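Cross-check.
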Amino acid sequence: MAIPHALPAQAIDVHPFGPRLADEKSVALFKSDDLEVIRMVLPAGKRLPSHKVAGGLVLHCLEGRLQVDVDSQQHALRAGQLLHLPGNVAHAVSALEDSSALLTLVVRK
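Predicted model, tokenized:
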């Protein structure tokens, strides 16, 4: 079964989940020919291992605290902060506390 995505010009709620955060899951919000946006939910202690994506990305922390490891540097993100990375840069993401974030990926074919 295909996951429903938002339609063009359809409003999407990305407010923090607050007390519902522990019950939420990551979900793809939409995908177009050149962008994909995912609402990521990471419980405290969860880590996405080091990986690369072909296109650039923007990670916007909506709630909680995340750590992004790039090369040998650690970058902390609090709610309301974002960072961007060019394509093909190895990175890992860890949740320092229960967190949700918007991940925007530039799609490269």
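The mean pLDDT is 94. The CA atoms of residues 15 and 56 lie 24 Å apart. Passed to J.P. for a second look.
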